Amino acid sequence: MLRDFFIGLSQNQFLNSAAKKYGLKMGAQSVVAGTNIPEVIKSIKELNAQGISCTVDNLGEFVFKKEEATEAKDQILQVIEAIHENKVDAHISLKPTQLGLDIEYDFCLNNLREIVHRANEYGIFINFDMEDYGHLQPSFDLLDELSREYDNVGTVIQAYFYNAQENLEKYKNYRLRIVKGAYKEPEEYAYQDKKDIDNNFIKLIEWHLLNGKFTSIATHDHRVINHVKEFVKKNDIPNDKFEFQMLYGFRKDLQLKLASEGYNFCTYVPFGNDWYGYFMRRLAERPQNLNLVAKQVFNKKTNTMIGLAASAFVLGRMTKNGKKKR
Ligand SMILES: Cc1cc2nc3c(=O)[nH]c(=O)nc-3n(C[C@H](O)[C@H](O)[C@H](O)COP(=O)(O)OP(=O)(O)OC[C@H]3O[C@@H](n4cnc5c(N)ncnc54)[C@H](O)[C@@H]3O)c2cc1C
């Protein structure tokens, strides 16, 4: 119920635009690394200095206008230039919907091609983040098309999907990030039980470590991390075949510890004003994350917003006709 609540909030476009207005004034900087390129480069340099590489996400959601998608593309191109000019250890994570997947497939493909082409000139990797089930196949299609021309692309496998193993095998020769999955998905396509998701997550990670090109294990779950450490040792899997990934601002001590133990570590660094949906999904995953940011993020203004949204959400649940929202 609490998870549904926060996922409901993450999809609320009114609250999304309201949050944008406040920028990072509400203190979301503990999980968002700045609003502009100089700020994010500064954060990357700090992480690099601690032996941590970065994947940069120029935050953006609910893109339904071509101008917005073009603007997002231009911003990502600028981030690529900044990574190159500053010689920082970083690559890009992006969401196909931000580049226009909900507007027109070919328009999105062309935007992505421009980004992947420029990044390829500088040897920068581009990861296609995976969103909800409705965008899964189109995102793989985009990857298929672009990987015919470029090899600096990869994507994400979400362990809650029944077809995750099938996609893992199909894309085993790509650099893949494996995650549990962040969206609300129906039983028709995805495991609902945490235990089933966790078991599948481990199974996929092990399979890709043994058979895949390069595995990014993206989790804050210390049990999974400890399991992977044992597994790679037992199976003589060299450190250059995998890395751990976590989100900026989460479990910083563990991030540093893993890096200092000699594991490749990559922090997912989101930046920009459009932090709201991203942040709500983090709360949906783990309401205790509220502790991390409660003091800074939740002031009178946000509490009112959340209160309004809670009422809307409850009303919505009472009136909805049984159709589940993802
Ligand atoms: C780098 C990165 C990229 C991602 N990209 C995508 C993507 O493209 N698409 C997508 O759908 N999802 C993505 N996700 C989100 C992912 O799918 C999960 O929703 C998210 O990571 C939560 O699951 P978890 O594995 O971290 O552990 P959880 O299942 O949330 O937690 C398991 C256990 O770990 C411990 N734990 C977790 N968080 C903390 C914390 N902050 N402090 C202390 N203990 C903690 C607790 O004991 C908890 O019970 C990404 C996640 C990361 C880290």
Automatic annotation (TrEMBL):
<feature type="binding site">
    <location>
        <position position="281"/>
    </location>
    <ligand>
        <name>substrate</name>
    </ligand>
</feature>
<feature type="binding site">
    <location>
        <begin position="180"/>
        <end position="182"/>
    </location>
    <ligand>
        <name>FAD</name>
    </ligand>
</feature>
<feature type="binding site">
    <location>
        <position position="130"/>
    </location>
    <ligand>
        <name>FAD</name>
    </ligand>
</feature>
<comment type="pathway">
    <text>Amino-acid degradation; L-proline degradation into L-glutamate; L-glutamate from L-proline: step 1/2.</text>
</comment>
<feature type="binding site">
    <location>
        <position position="158"/>
    </location>
    <ligand>
        <name>FAD</name>
    </ligand>
</feature>
<dbReference type="InterPro" id="IPR008219">
    <property type="entry name" value="PRODH_bac_arc"/>
</dbReference>
<dbReference type="GO" id="GO:0000166">
    <property type="term" value="F:nucleotide binding"/>
</dbReference>
<keyword id="KW-0285">Flavoprotein</keyword>
<feature type="binding site">
    <location>
        <position position="95"/>
    </location>
    <ligand>
        <name>substrate</name>
    </ligand>
</feature>
<dbReference type="InterPro" id="IPR015659">
    <property type="entry name" value="Proline_oxidase"/>
</dbReference>
<dbReference type="InterPro" id="IPR002872">
    <property type="entry name" value="Proline_DH_dom"/>
</dbReference>
<feature type="binding site">
    <location>
        <position position="282"/>
    </location>
    <ligand>
        <name>substrate</name>
    </ligand>
</feature>
<dbReference type="GO" id="GO:0010133">
    <property type="term" value="P:L-proline catabolic process to L-glutamate"/>
</dbReference>
<protein>
    <recommendedName>
        <fullName>proline dehydrogenase</fullName>
        <ecNumber>1.5.5.2</ecNumber>
    </recommendedName>
</protein>
<feature type="binding site">
    <location>
        <begin position="219"/>
        <end position="220"/>
    </location>
    <ligand>
        <name>FAD</name>
    </ligand>
</feature>
<dbReference type="GO" id="GO:0004657">
    <property type="term" value="F:proline dehydrogenase activity"/>
</dbReference>
<feature type="domain" description="Proline dehydrogenase">
    <location>
        <begin position="41"/>
        <end position="291"/>
    </location>
</feature>
<dbReference type="Pfam" id="PF01619">
    <property type="entry name" value="Pro_dh"/>
</dbReference>
<keyword id="KW-0642">Proline metabolism</keyword>
<keyword id="KW-0274">FAD</keyword>
<keyword id="KW-0547">Nucleotide-binding</keyword>
<keyword id="KW-0560">Oxidoreductase</keyword>
<feature type="binding site">
    <location>
        <position position="194"/>
    </location>
    <ligand>
        <name>FAD</name>
    </ligand>
</feature>
<dbReference type="InterPro" id="IPR029041">
    <property type="entry name" value="FAD-linked_oxidoreductase-like"/>
</dbReference>
